[in-house]
Amino acid sequence: MLKGVAVEPASATLGQSLVASTVFTLSSALKTSQPVPSMNHLELEQEIGKMARAMMTRNSLIGKDLIADLRGRLSVECVAALMIVSIERLIWSDCESVIWSLSYLIPADVMEEIRRITALVVCQRLMGKGFVLGKDFSIDAAGRLLLSENAKTAVVVA
Prior knowledge:
By secondary structure, the chain is mainly alpha-helical. It has 7 helices and 3 strands; from the N terminus they run E-H-H-H-H-H-H-E-E-H.
């Protein structure tokens, strides 16, 4: 039986595992390609560092100014990808800043794109491990990931 698990579940441990496993896959993909057409790798790294530091300050004015600047230059998908990699920088060392950023900093449309990207990556990883879409996991109309117990375990263990 499938149970609903949002990309941001109530359990901090499950949430950290989902974010960490997804972010690892995404950041690996981002580092090997040119994800942002208007930036080179050095500029991208600098923007990721700025965003991670803004998240660490927990100052919404700084973070929102950075996001506004990025939105003026990049698509929502690129801003979301940059935010995901910034979260990766903090998830293991400053989890409270990540939780704060998810709650207070990231705009709704960027968060929706992060959820879409995260769900897609988790689905790809599960299919790569032999899980069957529609049987072991699926996505409901609201975009929440529905996981069987075995799929949930596979996501957490990964």
